[in-house]
Amino acid sequence: MKIIKADKNTPSDDTGVAILEKHGASHQADEFDGAPTTKFGATLHFNQKHTADNSKFRGIHPVQSMRSHQEHLATLIASALPSLPNALPPSNAVEDRSSKQIPILCPKTGNWIWKRKPDFVSVTRGPGMISSLDVGLNTAKGLALAWQIPLLGVNHMQSHALTPRLVSALDQQNSCPAPCPMFPFLSLLVSGGHTLLLHSKSIIDHAVLASTCDIAIGDALDKIARVVCPDVLLQSPGEIMYGRLLEQFAFPNGVRDHQYVPPATRGEELASNITRWGWNLPVPFATTSSGAKTRLMKFSFTGLDSKVRKICSERGDIMAHEERLELAREAMRVAFEHLAARVVLALDALGSSEEVVDTLVVSGGVASNSYLKTILGTFLAARNYPHVSLSAPPPALCTDNAAMIAWTGIEMYEAGWESELGCAGLRKWSLDAHAEDGGILGAVGWISRTGP
C-alpha cells in the first residue's frame, strides 16, 4: 500500500508545504509500480517553508503573518507539485488517467507530465491564529475539491507529538514493522505558544498531565533572550527566534559547554542557587504560600522571566559579559529542570498505577535546544529513570513544518477519519478527550469513513 499526501501548515508565521508518501509493510505488489513493499517506511518528496519576517515587531504579528501566507503559499505549492511521483502510462488506449493521475507543468522542460494524484490533502486546522489558519484551510479545500480527494484538518500539537513516529518512518535503517515509539508514551510539547506534558495512549488519546498556568516556555526564553543577549546578536537579520539566540550565546561550543550536574534529590532540585554575582533565580513552585514544598502538576515561567528582567535592569551597563553568560545558562537550567521535575512526578504517578512508560517524546520548537535534552536525559537517570529513553526529532522537524502535518494526516486517514469541506479553523483545540471541547475528535466536522 502507498499513500501520498500533500500538506499545508499555516498555524502562525510559518508557511509550509510537504509531499509525503507512506509505504506499507506488505508483501503484496504495489498497485502503481509493481514492486513488492516488504518494509514499513515513508519518503518525503518535498518539504519547504517560509517564515514571515516579523523582526521589526520582535515577535509574531498576525497581519504580517497572514500576508506572508497569502504571498508564499501558492508559490510553495507550485514548487511542490513537480515532486509528486511520476505516474505510469495507461495500460491501454481507453484507460482513464483522470481518477488517479493529474497533469503537472514541468518548470524545467515546459512540458506537461502525468503525476500521481495525492490520496488526500492534510492541513493545520488549529490551534493557532484564525487569520493564518484560514489561508491554509481555504487553499487545502480548493485542492481537495479540484482533485476530488478527501480533506484532513489536523491538530497542530497532535502533529508535534507524533513527529518522532514520522522520523522512524523516514529512517531507511529502521527495521520496525510499525511507527516508533509505540503507544503509550509521555509527550513533552514545548514551544513559543504551548507547554504541555501528555500521556499519549493512541493517535487521538493524549491526556494532559501538566500545562502552563501563565506563559509558554518558548515565550519565556524569547523574553529572557531580549534582555540578556548582546544587541549585536539580537539584531541578526530576519531572526525572531530569540530563544535559539539565547542558546547560541550561552553555549557557543554546543554540548561541550554544558557541564551539567543534575540534582540527586528533590531537596537539591528545589534549593536556590546563589551565584558568585550575588543573585539567584527562583525555582517555580518551590514552595506554596504556606511555605510547604509543592508537587503541583503545572508549569510556570513568569516568575523566572520577571527575576531575569529585574537583574538586568538593576545591573544595567555594568553587567559584564561573563555575568550575562551565566545568567543565560542559569535561566535555561532553572526552566528546563522545572520541566524535568514534572516529568519525574508524572512517571512516579504512572509507576504507582503500574502503567509502563519507557519513552519520553520531546517535540516543538524548544525541543531543538540541545541543553534541554542534556538536562532531561541526565535528570531522569539521576532520579531512577535511566530506562526512559528520549525521542526528539532532528531540529528541522522540531520547529513547525508541513511534514509533521502530512504524517498526522496519514495516521488519522488510516484510522478512518477525514474532514468535512466546511470545517473551520480553531483558535483553541485541546488534545485531551476529557477536556471541555472533547479533544481531537470533539471538534465539529469529522467524518468517519468506517461508519458510526
3D architecture notes:
With 452 residues, the chain is of the alpha/beta class. It has twelve helices and 14 strands. The strands form four sheets. Strands 3-2-1-6-7 form a five-stranded mixed beta sheet, with helices on both faces. A five-stranded mixed beta sheet has the order 10-9-8-11-12, with helices on both faces. Strand 4 (101-105) and strand 5 form a beta hairpin. Residues 26-37 have low confidence and may be disordered.
Shape: globular
Q: Whole-number average pLDDT?
A: 87
Return the structural class.
Answer: alpha/beta
> Main beta sheet, described?
5 strands, mixed
Query: Whole-number radius of gyration?
Result: 23 Å
SSE order: EEEHEEEHEHEEEHHHHHHEHEHHEE
Number of helices: 12
Low-confidence stretches: 26-37
Query: Care to count the β-strands?
Result: 14
Amount of beta strand = 15-25%
For this entry, give a set of tags:
12 helices; alpha/beta; 14 strands; 452 residues; globular; 19% strand; 5-stranded mixed β-sheet; single chain
Give a nutshell description of this structure.
The protein is α/β, with parallel strands linked by helices and 452 residues long. The protein is built from twelve helices and 14 strands. Strands 3-2-1-6-7 form a five-stranded mixed β-sheet, sandwiched between helices.
Task: Present the secondary structure layout.
Elements (H helix, E strand, L loop, with lengths): L1 E8 L4 E10 L17 E11 L10 H19 L20 E5 L6 E5 L3 E7 L3 H18 L3 E5 H15 L14 E6 L4 E8 L2 E7 L5 H12 L2 H4 L7 H9 L15 H5 L31 H14 L5 H32 L6 E5 L6 H13 L6 E3 L3 H4 L3 H13 L2 E3 L26 E3 L4
Parallel strand pairs: 1-6, 6-7, 8-11, 11-12
Antiparallel strand pairs: 1-2, 2-3, 4-5, 8-9, 9-10, 13-14
